Amino acid sequence: MLGRDYSDQICSISRSLEVVGERWTLLILRDVLLGRHRFDEFVESLGVTRTVLTQRLRLLVDEGVLERRPYQQRPERFDYDLTDKGRALTPVIAHLLWWGDHYYPEPAGPPRLLQHRDCGGPVEPRFFCGQCQAELTAGDIVAQPGPGLSAHSLTRDHGTTSRSGAAGSLTPPV
Amino acid sequence: MLGRDYSDQICSISRSLEVVGERWTLLILRDVLLGRHRFDEFVESLGVTRTVLTQRLRLLVDEGVLERRPYQQRPERFDYDLTDKGRALTPVIAHLLWWGDHYYPEPAGPPRLLQHRDCGGPVEPRFFCGQCQAELTAGDIVAQPGPGLSAHSLTRDHGTTSRSGAAGSLTPPV
Question: In angstroms, what separates the C-alpha of B59 from chain A's closest C-alpha?
Fold first, then answer.
């Protein structure tokens, strides 16, 4: 767990990375999304050491991202599946896939295609404004300090308020 | 760079993680998105060691995710900004933020809000089928082997074809 290093960050991104930011973790979740569920399947697929894999799986189960289910009694064996919380990471993994497809293309084309189950069409992400319903591009989106950051600034005082409190733009100023 | 461990994976997700999967890297990109651009700002914000930060920034510049620009001559100093390739990671970071907001909420509310620049409305992600235009949920999306995976299976033969070639569902079968 990255907590010791990341945990003083008042930021949902760093909180997420405490859980899924360790090496191999997102690839384990990708494997489960692709239909692998057992310890030995992860070892074979990833080439990760059993010790590291055990640590990663334990954290993911403890955090409720994966659930562990017995599938054999003697010896006792478990497989792993995504919880709703784990499935909610699908967009993170999908965007990593699309980014890799675009910037590190395989000569023959994408290794994996995300498709609409019913018609086989390609999946396309879009962003909208929940208020005016406009479709948004990256340049239309800004990051603003939210109530959680303000509350924190009021209750702790170690000089981070002005820095963390700054409004940010998701694109550089033009 | 995680290349040695990840590079035998024929997968755009692992290719992406070779570049942005190391510890701190996504938080550096978050910092740039929020308006931090200088080495000392990253050190102060992240508490990362200067050695590790230097390594991460070098990889991100080498890979064309960040660009380094001189802002002072004596002594020579640089700041860092996102390239188009770096900005294309915004959805990855946004979804990590939303996931953290949802599953690890701050009592007072989200620390950061992603808003529509024009009207201040909340940004909402949606997925569509590029063929039939239906709006998709996670259960509507399947991962299929693409041409890059098939080409690889034909040119290399170390027993991974059947495993890697399996179609995957982004949700477990119901």
Answer: 15
